[in-house]
Structures are given as C-alpha cells and as structure tokens.
Amino acid sequence: MLSLLLGGTVYLVVRGPDHATLPADRPSGGPGGREQDEADLRADAAAGLLERLAERLEHGTREQVVALAAPGQRAAAQELTTIRSNVRALGVTNLSLRYVDEDGGRVDPTQQRALGGRAWVGNVQVRWRLRGFDRADSRMETTLTLVRSGSRAAFVSARGNYGNATPLWMLERVSVARTRRSLVLSSRDRPGRFAGLADQAVADVRKVLPAWRGGLVVEVPAGEAQLSRVLGSELDAYDGIAAVTTTADGSRAPNAPVHVFVNPTVFDPLGPRGSQIVMSHEATHVATGAATSQMPTWLLEGFADYVALADVDLPVTRTASQILDQVSRKGPPSHLPGRAEFDPENTALGASYEAAWLACRLLAEEYGQRRLIQFYRLSDRLSSTTRPFRSVLHTDQRRFTRAWMRYLRQLAP
C-alpha cells in the first residue's frame, strides 16, 4: 500500500561547541606538552586554510581552489574541484568553514604514510545557504581530513566517514535541476524527474494552503548508505521509508532550512502516482513547519496525507486497505495512532498512516477543510490538541475518537 512508503518527519541534533578553543587557552609544557603544542600548530594552520577555502569555493577560480589541496594528492585536487562545481551549480552562498577541534577518528594508515604522517581529522563547522530557496543559514559540524606542512595546512578529503553528518554537495558531484518552485540536487542522473514531482507537490499544497509561497529543496543521495551519511543516522534508520523531511543541518532551530531527503532504495520502485503522493506528503511537511513541530503525530502525518491525497481518484478501500483490513479482522484501534504506532520498526506502519489520514479526512467531512486547517495550526502552536478540539471543533478527543472508530467500521468491507 502506498502509505507504507510515505516518509515521516525526523528530528536530529547536531552536537558541537559554539566556538573553537584558541591556542592561548590551551596549556603547554609538562607531560604531553609537545603533543599539545603540535595540536596548537595544527589548529592555527587549519583555521587559516579553512578561511581561504570557503572564500575561494564561493568566489575563487578553479586554480585558486586546487592550490589548497595537499601537494601531490591528485584525489584531493579532484575533490576540491567537485565541491567548487557543486557550490556554483547550487548557488551556495554565505559559505564559511570554521575549525572546532580535532576529531578522534584516525586517518587511514595508507593515506597517513602517503602524507608523511602529518594528516589528522578535524571537526569543522560548515555554514551555508542555498540562494533563492533557503531563508536562513544551515550550520553543521562535519569532519575534514587535513595535513600540515610547516606553518600551513592543506585539504585532503571531506569524504572520510567518522560518524558526523556531511552535506550532500560536499560528498560527490551532484546533478542540479532548478525551477521557480523547486531545487533538486541529486547524486544520480535525471534530476528533472524529481523537479517535476516537486513542482507538482508545491501546486498540490497550494490548493489546500494557498498562502504558502515557499519552494521545495529535494536532496537525492545515491542510496541508503549515503542518505544515512548525509543525515548522520544509523544505516538502517530509513528502511521502508521513501522520503524524509527534516532540517538541512539536523538542528531543531525554528528558522533552519527544511529539505526533503529521498531514499532511492524505496522511492525508485514507486510508480508515477505513488511517487507524487510521497512528494506531496513531504511538501506539506515543509509548508507547515512539521520538521520542528511537537504536535501529536497522528495529526501531523494525517494532515500531510490529507493534502497529498486530496485530488487522487482512488477508492478508500485501496488508499486505506491496510487499516480497513485490520478493522475487518480485529475491529478498530482503541486510540488515535501515536509515536509507538509511527515507529519505523512497526510492522503495521502503513496502517498507522492510513488511520491518521482517515482521522483528518473525517475532520474535513464533519467540520470543513477551513476548520481542519485552523485545528491543525492551533495544535501546532500549542503542541497539543486538547484546547483546539474544544475551541475550534467544540468537542473533545474522547468523543472524536469514538466517532473515528465508528467511521472506520463503516468504511471497512
């Protein structure tokens, strides 16, 4: 069933201090003093390198960028060329790279030998914005492999996986499709396919929420492994999830840019209709600020399905087949689906999405779409449905749940 493949909203938190410790703040001398002095020299060298690199990636020539690669390391030069191309194609602006501290990750021994034993892994805060789509900067702490030669540092790689999230445009060359409504960056070919889905998703959302004038940024990693790398998650975190909407930097800052991240392993097998439903569902999350919302999950996910399925001409026995089959066999659920029912490991996840969608569909049928939207907005603002049920719908959740259970029984074959 299609709803089994509809993505949820994921909350990630980026760790990291707000400022780098300056060399003057660090002790020197005594046991380990020599190692600390070396760390100070690396930090100073890295700070200068990263300032120049950010400036040149955004405004410099290819030759100026490549000059910051580790001497004799062709792969490092090629990687910088790729990052610069991505920055220009995407319209990355406000770019900055700030050294934080050393990471505990060890450089590959073969690479370390090739670099004369002077390479290390640094934690680096990346700040960026996608011009024309992001209304604020994203901030993410990632890792770079660097090498010191004398008083200067050079770039080795941004691709080493040391457990931190990394922006997709820093990992490999991306294909870009830009329209008035959407921006797609893809590690795969055919970004235009996703741009078409995104454009239609924006149109679908505006039919229900005409005041929303935002656009959609869609990121398409090469596969599940790269998706987990971009989001800084466990490898199997998105098994069975076609797409996920979250902040671009993994933070929960209310003004952080929100993007849609596609899981190609699940998304690719969907047909045209299923793909569009997924994209319109995720676009609703973007339009309503769902990535940082604390409202009950049934309303957050059910409303997204309500928008995505508004113009889909399919019988309810198909669009809600799993929950209606469950009702036929065991009767309706005793409560609206919550976090446990929306756990990605729940084997009845599809039925949970369908149950939430039917709850929102019932609200629209009983009270009208305008009041459903008012109910949603107030629940979002209050992070609760208790008062909205009373003030907007003049009922309470207990009575609505009983009506929803009757509704499920009526629809079940």
How would you characterize this protein structure?
With 413 residues, the chain is an alpha+beta fold. The protein folds into three domains: 139 residues, no CATH class; 131 residues, Roll (Nuclear Transport Factor 2, Chain: A), CATH 3.10.450; 119 residues, no CATH class. The protein has 15 helices and nine strands. It has a five-stranded mixed β-sheet, with helices on both faces. Helix 9 crosses helix 12. The longest helix has 27 residues.
Q: State the strand order across the main sheet.
A: 5-6-7-9-8
- Given as residue ranges, the uncertain stretches (5+ residues, pLDDT < 50) are 1-31
The secondary-structure class comes to alpha+beta
Number of helices: 15
Number of strands: 9
Order of helices and strands: HHHEHEEEEEHEHEEHHHHHHHHH
Count of folded domains: 3
Shape annotation: elongated
Specify Rg, calculated over alpha carbons: 24 Å
Mean pLDDT: 90
Summarize the structure.
With 413 residues, this protein is an alpha+beta fold. It has helices at residues 33-59, 62-66, 74-90, 109-114, 191-208, 224-231, 264-267, 272-288, 297-308, 316-319, 321-330, 349-367, 369-382, 386-391, 397-411; strands spanning 92-102, 119-130, 138-149, 152-157, 175-178, 182-186, 216-220, 243-247, 258-262. It has 15 helices and 9 strands.
